[in-house]
Amino acid sequence: MTEQVLLEAVGEDGRTETVRIDFSETPPYVLRVRRGAGDTSATYEANDLFAALINLRLALEAEGLLLCCQGARVDVTSSGMEKQAGGRHVFPFTLEPRQVHHERSVDIFAPAAPDEVVTVEEQRKAIFALHGLRDTRGKPS
């Protein structure tokens, strides 16, 4: 079974673009994406929906766009158990005190305001900070 959502992508330059995402709810997890008037399309596949969404977000970021969805907020993280269930929901967290709010999961495809979303890298750094981990990616050991 597939579902469809319409989301906005925004750029720092003020441009906006409508992104239509058709996604599978069962493996294999695939996002079929149409942008703008529907003339640009792409497919993103991964082990779960959150990972596929990250791949889509990286492609949009390469063009200077951020996808306005709950899965792109700085303060959300996925859990291993949720990934096994398909990765459709993520959990909000706070850094002080470091706490994940498991009782309040959010749908990664639900819309978010442009000021709530960040790049994949900014989100990754926040998740490292949540877990108190030092980020050594790209740095010599």
Word description of this protein:
The structure is a single chain. This protein is α+β, with helices and mostly antiparallel strands and 141 residues long. It has one domain. Helices cover 21% and strands 34% of the residues. The chain is built from three helices and nine strands, in the order ββββαββαβββα. The protein has helices at residues 49-61, 80-84, 120-130, and strands spanning 2-11, 16-24, 29-35, 40-46, 65-67, 76-77, 89-94, 99-100, 106-107. The strands form two sheets. The protein has a five-stranded antiparallel sheet with strand order 4-3-2-1-5, with helices on one face. β3 and β4 (40-46) form a beta hairpin. The radius of gyration is 15 Å and the shape is globular. The termini are far apart. The model has no long low-confidence stretch (mean pLDDT 89).
Mean pLDDT: 89
Mind summarizing the main beta sheet?
5 strands, antiparallel
Question: Compute the gyration radius: what is it?
Answer: 15 Å
Q: What is the terminal separation in angstroms?
A: 45 Å
How many distinct helices?
Answer: 3
Share in helix = 10-25%
Identify low-pLDDT runs: none
Give the overall shape. globular
- Domains counted in the coordinates: how many? 1
The succession of helices and strands, N to C, reads EEEEHEEHEEEH
**Spatial order of the strands forming the largest sheet:** 4-3-2-1-5
Binned strand content: 25-35%
Alpha-beta content class: alpha+beta
How many β-strand stretches?
Answer: 9
